[in-house]
Every structure is written in C-alpha cells, then in structure tokens.
Design brief:
Helices cover 64% and strands 0% of the residues. It is built from 5 helices and no strands.
Length: 152
C-alpha cells in the first residue's frame, strides 16, 4: 500500500458518526448482517450520542443560570434573550432526538435494528454509521422525500 493509498484509506475511514472516539465498523468477510458485534457497535454509538446530548443540555442550563443578567440597556437584554431562545430551540430539537435515540436503542435490544421499516431490506452499515437512527433504506427515504416535496 502506497502512502497516498494509506492516506485515502484513512480519510475514507474517518468517522462521520455523531460521536467522537468510536471507530466506524469494518465488516468482516462472511459476517452476518446485524449480528451481535454489529448490534453492540451501534448500541455503543447510540448510548454515547445520547450521553453527549444530555451533557450538552446540562452545560446549557449551567450557562444560562450563570449568564442570566438584567441589562439596563434594552438592546443588550434583547440580544441575550435571543441568544437564550436560540439555545433553547436547539436543546428542544436535541430532546426530540434523544427520544428517537431511545426508540432506536429499544429496537437494537429487540433485535429489530438495521432493516427498512417500509420494505424490510437491509439499511446498510454505511448509512447507519452516518445516521444511526435511520428507519428507512436510502431508496424508501428518497421516495418519501419526493412525495413530501410534491405534497408541500
């Protein structure tokens, strides 16, 4: 393997996971799709992601308590309120994501993870690495998005 090939391989293996510190899963030859090792890998990703989101929410609460001030200048007060509103909106989205992560962890535990809810085929390791909460294969998701655009 040349240096260029090794660099490309390293770049390609760079994780697109939502959490740091977990290497992408490398499927072994002849390995069964969504066997014990793969399920454990994705469960670890989901648990780490959930933990990171909860920690971020805790940091936000601490930050907002520390930074909450009564500014005499209305512009400063408005700026702070807008900043807090943006933070709270972000945390609300993350709260919904945590709910989805919990649902996905339950699917992993029930051995019902990694298969498309619409057609039943394998979602695929690469798609799950990027979007561990995916419930649809790429074809069904694309079809769903096209239908949503047509109805909107």
């Amino acid at each position: 393997m040349t240096i260029a090939t090794a660099t490309v391989t390293r770049i390609n293996r760079k994780s697109a996971l939502p959490v740091d510190g977990i290497e992408p899963y490398v499927q072994k030859k002849g390995e069964e799709y969504m066997g014990e090792e793969q399920l454990a890998h994705f469960r670890n990703i989901l648990v780490a992601w959930k933990k990171a989101l909860i920690e971020e929410a805790d940091r936000t609460v601490g930050y907002m308590k520390e930074e909450a001030s009564n500014f005499s200048d209305p512009a400063d007060r408005a700026t702070q309120e807008e900043e807090f509103a943006l933070e709270l909106r972000t945390r609300d989205r993350e709260r919904k994501l945590i709910r989805k992560i919990n649902k996905t962890i339950a699917r992993v535990d029930a051995d019902d993870y990694g298969f498309c809810d619409a057609c039943g085929i394998e979602i695929g390791l690469q798609r799950l690495e990027v979007r561990p909460t995916a419930e649809l294969c790429i074809d069904c998701k694309t079809t769903q998005e096209i239908k949503e655009r047509q109805l909107a």
